[in-house]
Amino acid sequence: MSDVSLNETSYVWKQIAQSWGTYFDSPSRPSKMEVDQYKKWLKNISEGKTGLKGLVLGATPELRDALVESNFNSCIIDINWEMILAMTELLKTKNPNEVIIKANWLNNPLQNGYFDVVLGDAVLPNLPWEKRDEFYCEIKRLLKTGGYFMNRAFFVPEKKPFANIDELLKAFAQKPASNKTALELVFEIQILTHSETDHLGSMEKVVAVVEKLRGNNGFNFDSEELNKTLDIVWDYWLKTARQKIWIYPFEREEEAEYKKYFETEAKFCSTDHPYGKITPMYLLKS
């Protein structure tokens, strides 16, 4: 994994930000049930207290709104200014007191022991594998003693749901074509092509699979819905995120990492989208 850099894992967020509301749905962004769980945990932490400070890793609008709703003093940190600007436009509640830091999660000017809570939504897949321990140490540095790290994880199942691409396509031939279906197809191809050796959920692997399915005149499967879904994958995902890399661990691997740095106070699996069991949320205490 040493050949994967932060530049590669943070690539194309400008394009992704511009189409966040159109092409992105669960599991790539938190579902309603997951947002409600963030709010529930924040409310429990803040009850009877004032002046609490929260940090969002990235610019996810749902998490920023949740901090405002729970009366936290909020700060966000992200390396991509384009992502910050685009996500700010999607906020339900504009917060004039929000502090925005353009910096690397692993190397930043933030003060030791400053935050009561740090929130991340699918942040670890954007880090090179060998940087994960450094990341956890940085979260510990930023948190007060007894502070909380709220994280929605992103795993791949150890038993893959489909044995091969033909089996996967047969299942998706029965699904109505939509941007959400196309997103799920991309994710399923990433799971299918995932290797424990490299942990990569790279779009290059998706490109390699989809290009083999496309003929000179486009996609020509018996299912028109599948053809339409593949057209969305081809026209959006393979053009916009072609060089994006995600890092996906197994659940047991990431939970073992948590134990090295935090105490797990709660775990939550959403039931309002089909990937809740492999995108669980964790309330981790420093």
Quickly list its features.
Rossmann fold, 42% helix, single chain, 286 residues, globular, 7 strands, 12 helices, alpha/beta, 15% strand
Explain what the structure shows.
The protein is of the alpha/beta class and 286 residues long. It folds into two domains: 12-155 and 249-285, Rossmann fold, CATH 3.40.50.150; 165-240, no CATH class. It is 42% helix and 15% strand. It contains twelve helices and seven strands. It has a seven-stranded mixed sheet with strand order 3-2-1-4-5-7-6, with helices on both faces. Strand 2, helix 6 (81-88) and strand 3 form a beta-alpha-beta unit. Helix 9 crosses helix 11. The longest helix has 17 residues, at 224-240. The protein is globular. The two termini are 28 Å apart. 36% of the residues are buried.
CATH architecture of the largest domain: 3-Layer(aba) Sandwich
Count of alpha/pi helices: 12
CATH class of the largest domain: Alpha Beta
Class of secondary structure makeup: alpha/beta
Overall pLDDT score: 92
Compute the number of structural domains. Answer: 2
Radius of gyration: 19 Å
Q: First CA to last CA: what distance? A: 28 Å
Instruction: Output the CATH homologous superfamily of the largest domain.
Output: Vaccinia Virus protein VP39
Strand content: 15-25%
Strand order of the largest sheet: 3-2-1-4-5-7-6
Report the principal-axis shape. Answer: globular
Largest sheet: number of strands, sense, barrel closure: 7 strands, mixed
CATH topology of the largest domain: Rossmann fold
